[in-house]
Design brief:
Elements (H helix, E strand, L loop, with lengths): L1 E8 L7 H11 L7 E6 L5 E7 L12 E2 L5 E8 L2 H8 L9 H12 L9 E9 L4 E6 L8 E5 L2 E5 L16 H10 L12 E3 L4 E5 L6 E4 L13 H19 L6 E4 L4 H11 L8 E6 L9 H11 L2 E6 L2 H15 L8 H11 L5 E3 L4 H5 L3 H17 L11 H4 L10 H7 L8 H9 L11 H4 L5 H8 L9 H11 L1 H14 L4 E3 L5 H7 L4 H4 L7 H6 L6 H4 L11 H7 L2 H9 L3 H4 L10 H7 L6 H16 L8
Parallel strand pairs: 13-14, 13-16, 14-15, 16-17
Antiparallel strand pairs: 1-3, 1-9, 2-3, 4-5, 5-6, 6-7, 7-11, 8-9, 8-10, 11-12
């Protein structure tokens, strides 16, 4: 796990290449506290840099790494099947024990096809002098980041946008990305909030030649080709086999591995299975809590798991003083205002983690591949009612009846405001419009955002292209919903996972996102995955013997809620801090705000879990840290 950066230029220029690399390295230093290195071609045409967090082959895994053929790599991530690939390529070829060298040798043997053989998380760039081109690639799910910009004949790339900012002539907000932000609080496609900066999409690679724009191609896609031949018993056995194998591979490390345990099903299961792979050492686990009662504290579930599996549980109690001190740092490390307030406690739990382990497992991805979001239940509930009225419950759109879904509706107890909003503007429209209505937040900003100045969002067309993807069969509402979140929400959450852990030099691994497991789950019919409207039913069935009943039987889904509204309403440090953030005229007159924007009215009007205040607060902190203080590279 590391930070990568570099450039390729249209014309040879050896004068300031080291300075450009140094600027990028400094911006990424937090990602690699264990070492750094750089490589510059003799003519100054190409330069790559690296900051290292040493996890595999601590002694000889330094980067950038140069092969005998002259190929040079800078790489961030972990290839978990590197041992098997090393054997296939021939151990006699290798000078190190690192997965970095495995990537280099695999590229020299198989070219760009090498990436289809990797199991893991990765973002890398390989300068190939034989092709006079830079080969860049990103893992299937977007676990590891890769950003780039083209400026004045230069192609720059880096693990984080902040390393590219010095090479932008000015920092401007991308208008389409801003619309995405107000709709979803993340960007669709390759867009970023920075005008002129794009990201290499997950499951894509590209070649960049000097002076030319990158040629980018997709190398993998999950296919929802439903398997009607096998039984639930078969799928249960295969899911268990594949997840246990993924955990086995994710435990490969030359340093100790710990686990995040939020108290939810996903992280608890990952941590529990990981304990089986180090039976002689107590797994170190990490969690956080707010002391505002059970609505903001899942630590009792984390403690139940720790006692069940003999884990060493480290906890941090998070206060409003922590929020005031660290929230600006959170936005700085995120690079963009694209996440909910849960990124804040995640930042502090990662800070706790770094004092004990360098590698930690998490449960990210479980909701998207097994179906864990309450909105799936709400959307299906509406479709079930419609189907019952129309007599169409036997069609492929319905895998449950409204009678069977009723016992699971208690899951929606905390989502009454969402239900009210969902049904406020009609009911029973086509299901693409209904799901868009369920996730689109732009209408909640109607009294605050000046759409006439920034343009009205038109995200529905882009939404439909993803929702109705050619890889998803049209009959399954459940698969369409989970697929959209898998392709959009998940990469945004993975950005948080990467930034909050790497802010403290901690490597976060996500075993649910192993492509053999994801590919299998895409073939399982919805009437097995979502039978009787039970969220994550298949996952619970597969691993009922691995977790305490307190976790298995949970119906509430919390997702690390932050008591931001409570802090704001009760007065004190957080309210004073937020008021100070919006005190300046510049903050109150951003181009996207309506005239007369009043933060006190916004504070007073929000519900307990309302995210509108967070949306504007994180956006303003981002403006202050990236727009207002931009200093371009001058040489």
């Amino acid at each position: 796990m590391c930070g990568i950066s570099g450039f390729i230029h249209a014309l040879p220029n050896s004068s300031d290449g080291p300075d450009r690399l140094s600027v990028m390295q400094r911006a990424l230093r937090h990602r690699g506290p264990d070492g750094n290195g750089s490589w510059l071609s003799a003519d100054g045409l190409v330069g790559v840099a690296h900051v290292r967090l040493a996890i595999i082959d601590i002694a000889t895994g330094e980067q950038p790494m140069v092969s005998d053929s002259g190929c040079v790599i800078t790489y961030n991530g972990e290839i978990y099947n590197y041992i098997e690939l090393r054997k296939e390529l021939g151990p006699e070829l290798f000078r190190t024990q690192s997965d970095t060298e495995v990537i280099l040798r695999a590229y020299e043997r198989w070219g760009e096809d090498c990436i289809t053989r990797f199991r893991g998380m990765f973002a890398f760039a390989i300068w190939d002098p034989r092709r006079n081109a830079l080969f860049v690639a990103r893992d299937r799910f977007g676990i590891k980041p890769f950003y780039f910009t083209e400026q004045n004949g230069y192609f720059y790339f880096a693990s984080e946008i902040k390393a590219l900012c010095p090479f932008l002539p000015q920092v401007q907000t991308n208008a389409e990305a801003l619309h995405d932000y107000f709709s979803f609080q993340f960007c669709l496609g390759s867009k970023t909030m920075f005008d002129g900066v794009r990201q290499l999409p997950p499951a894509h690679f590209g070649f960049v030649e000097p002076g030319k724009s990158p040629r980018i191609s997709r190398y993998w896609e999950v296919q929802y080709n439903l398997d009607w031949e096998h039984t639930e018993t078969y799928f249960v056995a295969r899911v268990r086999e594949l997840l246990e194998d993924s955990i086995r591979l994710h435990m490969r490390s030359d340093v100790e591995v710990g686990a995040y345990v939020s108290g939810g099903l996903d992280s608890s299961l990952v941590a529990s299975l990981a304990c089986d792979h180090q039976p002689n050492v107590a797994m170190q686990a990490f969690t956080g809590k707010f002391e505002f009662g059970e609505a903001f504290d899942e630590s009792r579930y984390a403690l139940a798991l720790a006692n069940h599996r003999g884990m060493r549980l480290h906890q941090i109690a998070i206060s409003e003083e922590d929020f005031v001190r660290d929230i600006a740092k959170v936005i700085y490390h995120l690079d963009s205002p694209v996440a909910g307030p849960g990124s804040f406690p995640q930042y502090l739990v990662s800070k706790l983690t770094k004092h004990h382990v360098k590698v930690v497992l998490g449960g990210q991805g479980g909701d998207e591949i097994f179906g864990g979001y309450a909105r799936y239940l709400l959307a299906y509930w509406e479709q079930c009612i419609k189907g019952a009225l129309d007599g169409t419950t036997a069609s492929g759109n319905f895998v449950v009846t409204y009678e069977s879904i009723i016992p699971n509706l208690q899951t929606l107890r905390e989502y009454k405001p969402l239900i009210q909003e969902f049904w406020a503007d009609g009911i029973f429209d086509p299901r693409d419009k209904r799901y868009f209505r369920l996730i689109n937040r732009s209408n909640t900003f109607s009294d605050l955002v000046d759409w006439d100045r920034i343009g009205h969002p038109n995200s529905f067309d882009e939404f439909k292209q993803i929702y109705w993807g050619d890889n998803v069969q049209k009959e399954s509402y459940f698969d369409s919903m989970t697929h959209f979140d898998f392709k959009t929400l998940l990469p945004a959450l993975l950005q948080v996972e990467d930034r909050m852990s790497m802010a403290h030099g901690v490597e976060s691994r996500v075993p649910f996102l192993d492509h053999p497991l994801v590919e299998l789950l895409a073939t399982i019919p919805s009437n097995i995955k979502f039978q009787n409207g039970e969220l994550k039913r298949l996952l619970r069935t597969c691993f009922a013997d691995c977790l305490p009943r307190a976790i298995l039987d949970r119906k509430d889904k919390m997702g690390f809620p932050v008591p931001l509204q409570i802090w704001l309403r009760q007065g004190g440090r957080v309210r004073e801090f937020v008021q100070d953030i919006f005190a300046s005229r510049q903050a109150r007159e951003r181009e996207y705000l309506k005239s007369g924007f009043n933060v006190d009215e916004l504070i007073a009007g929000g519900s307990l879990f309302n995210r509108n205040l967070w949306a504007f607060l994180s956006l303003e902190l981002w403006q202050q840290q990236f727009h207002d203080v931009h200093k371009p590279f001058i040489k």
